[in-house]
Write a structure and sequence with these properties.
- There is one protein chain.
- Helix content is 38%, strand content 15%.
- It has 13 helices and twelve strands.
- It is α/β, with parallel strands linked by helices.
- A seven-stranded mixed beta sheet has the order 1-7-6-5-4-2-3, sandwiched between helices.
- Helix 5 links the parallel strand 2 and strand 3.
- It folds into two domains: 207 residues, 3-Layer(aba) Sandwich (Aspartate Aminotransferase, domain 2), CATH 3.40.640; 130 residues, Aspartate Aminotransferase, domain 1 (Alpha-Beta Complex), CATH 3.90.1150.
- The chain binds pyridoxal-5'-phosphate.
- The site of pyridoxal-5'-phosphate has 13 residues, from helix 4.
């Protein structure tokens, strides 16, 4: 045989027993089968065998098992970004004529997905006040099939009463089953990116599905995009898995490797960033020019009592509203003066970030919704250096 052929069909097989801290990085579109019978018999859905790169490799199966463990679930599917994981949940559980309910403070691109893409497929959506479970109860109708939850809320970090919201969904399902035992139930899905499986156990609070942008804490590097959808329910997982297959959602082995590498230190990073964030949020609240600081662990921040009851840690985010005499242009200039806090969106990485938001353009329920709010994401720099950076930028405001 020619060298080109011998290089491809080489007889050498490395010994099987290789163990090291990092799991191997297995790359494949093509997967080989020893014979036709195996080709026909292999099932990837229960993870008992490999059939095709999109259906899973040792690397992605390993990451899925670890993310399921992190969240206290039993099944996991991976998607190429947090947003694609949101879209997967929508597409797995909704069809034309259905309605999805989202919290008014949901992750913005997830809202826009419902407003534009789902609407094009004949799926309606409405936004509920996450701090009023009664409002969710009022909005649930016969077409409701999916209820999104987010804790804490995007940008304003209100911490909702998750068990109360889940109870509303469960009561609606019970009432529906009484009228028609075969009726499709409403799925409750939590965007758990903020809690990351560290701050609280999502399934202990009753949700059916927990989603994460692995882009944030599990990666921790600010250098990879990925999402996950975890359940404890085999039926829901199967729906997700089949939709996932038909949409062709896959993740690259090198990206899965990066997330596996970050995942080993997630608890250490989460708690270290939590400590630094509380210190900085508390310090900001003492500044005369600051009107309000949003952080669930601060007494007075919306939903603080729920956070205290249901969570044991808080993420690296806090948001600040300045006194009314500070103009949005001054707030922009404040952000531009920051040196260690870089301007950027994706958080939970090593570098601290800030983003100015205009809430009046983001919320639909009655306010107040300040036109200038700054969200900070605290990274892994020294807290005293970060505080000094905030102080020098604040000095320019007075
Ligand atoms: C970042 C984020 C997402 C989306 O994740 P990407 O990987 O950036 O698509 C979804 N939900 C929340 C709460 C997020 O913070």
């Amino acid at each position: 045989m020619a060298t080109s052929t011998r290089l491809l069909h080489h007889a050498y097989r490395p010994p099987a027993e290789f163990e090291a801290p990092a799991p191997g990085v297995h790359k494949a579109s093509t997967v080989f089968f020893p014979n036709v019978a195996a080709m026909r018999a292999r099932d990837w859905k229960d993870k008992s065998a490999y059939t095709y790169g999109l259906h899973g490799t040792p690397t992605t199966f390993t990451l899925e098992a670890r993310i399921a463990t992190l969240e206290g679930g039993t099944h996991c599917v991976l998607a190429p970004s947090g947003l694609s994981a949101l879209a997967l949940v929508d597409m797995a559980f909704l069809r034309a004529g259905d309605e999805v309910l989202l919290p008014d403070n949901a992750y913005g691109p997830g809202l826009s997905l419902a407003e534009v893409e789902l609407a094009r497929w004949g799926i309606a959506h409405r936004r509920y006040d996450p701090m009023r479970p009664q409002h969710l109860a009022e909005l649930i109708g016969p077409a409701t099939r999916l209820v999104w939850l987010e804790a804490a809320g995007s940008v304003t970090l209100e911490f909702p009463d998750i068990p109360a919201l889940v109870a509303v969904v469960q009561a609606a399902n019970a009432a529906r089953a009484q009228c028609d035992p075969g009726a499709r139930t409403i799925v409750s899905a939590l965007d758990n990116t903020w809690g990351a499986g560290v701050a609280f156990a999502p399934f202990a609070l009753g949700v059916d599905v927990s989603l994460q942008a692995l882009t944030k804490y599990p990666s921790g590097g600010g250098d990879v995009l990925m999402g996950s959808v975890v359940t404890r329910d085999a039926g829901l997982h199967r729906q997700l898995l089949l939709t996932h297959m038909r949409l062709g959602l896959g993740v690259g082995a090198n990206d899965a490797e990066l997330v596996l590498r970050g995942l080993s230190s997630i608890a250490l990073r989460y708690h270290a960033q939590d400590r630094a964030t509380r210190a900085l949020a508390g310090w900001m609240r003492q500044q005369a020019v600051v009107a309000q600081v949003f952080h669930p662990a601060l007494p007075g921040s919306p939903g603080h009592a729920h956070w205290l009851r249901d969570a044991s840690a808080a993420a690296c985010l806090f948001s600040v509203v300045f006194q009314p005499h500070i103009t949005p242009a001054q707030v922009d200039a404040f952000c531009d003066r920051l040196r260690l806090f870089r301007l950027g969106y994706s958080w939970a990485g090593p570098v601290s970030l800030c983003v100015p938001y205009d809430l009046s353009a983001m919320r639909t329920l009655p306010g107040p919704h300040p036109a200038a709010l700054v969200r900070f994401a605290v990274g892994l720099e020294d807290v005293a250096d970060l505080q000094a950076d905030l102080a020098q930028a604040l000095a320019g405001l007075s």
